[in-house]
Amino acid sequence: MTKKIIYLAIAIGLLSVTGYQLVSNKKKTENRVYIFDKEQPISVKTMPITAELPKGLYTFPGLFEADKESKISTDIQGKIIRVLVENGDKVSSGQILLELDNSLLKLQLQTIEIQIEGLESDLKRHTTLAKADAIQGVQLEKTELALRSAKVQKNTLLEQISKTTVRAPFDGIVTAKLTEAGSFAAPGMPLIQVTDISDLKLTVNVSERELVWFNQSSSYKIKAEIMPQTDLNGKLLAVAGKAAAASNFPVHFRIKNPNQDILKAGMSGTLELTMTDTQKMPVIPASAIVGTNIKPQVFLIKNGKAYLHDIDVLRRYDNKAVIGSGLTEGDRIVTNGFVNLYDGVNVTF
Fold first, then answer.
1. What predicted TM-score, i.e. pTM, was given to this entire model?
2. Residue 252 bridge partners (DSSP)
């Protein structure tokens, strides 16, 4: 019994020591963990909003499009017997792209030609007989009409036969082969797409205020993302008469493609323009913007707190952003110290 009491006392002692150690470790851990105090203001750097005349290099992104592109089809139906091009092939205007089966049309043409030969012989004979008053004049007229009708049928068949050969409408590159030999072609069904990229179009979107910067008599510097060291000379084609998304106006430019093996339709390009705006507007560091390109925001200071605030970014230049709406002169925004910053937090600056 005495041994049992001794063992029990030892076990209780060990448990007490273990418990004390655990409590001690917990206190040490709690002292090491930083507990964020939501009421404690966060130190940030800010700046007041002032209006200025934005000046610098303005960039307008866009996509290059082919100057000419056509999905080629046939005007008649028939079985495709030969396709003479593949995707990526360069083709010239008038080059044969594919052929339809025209054997039945050629047989019909032979039949009409035989009819024409017979009618021409009849016409000669009836003309002679009519002069001798051996036949009535109406019979000669019927022969003449039958011959004219047969010649019209022949021309119709020749036109149909010519349409069984599909040719390239202009110089370009085959960008889509949509059929194969043995397939059936119907009028209006796309068979081959040919794209001309010797000239390219770049479309950019500009605000109503920026439209005055563009006129037909000027040339514009355009850069292709894949050829950043090459300056491309852009000619203004047209300004859209109606605003697109976000009240921006599409403006179209044409360039001569310096290298069709490198620069393709669908690639990214940028219009570069060095201008001074005609109206003072809020300009802020681009680094002060949080959120996304679709929904840009800044932290606006009000009564010692930082609030997330929606803005409209017109354009960017030299690591700055021109603000169209959302900020006015005298507002103050956060420019640095975004760690632990959230909507409505107390701040000091």
1. 0.59
2. 203, 238
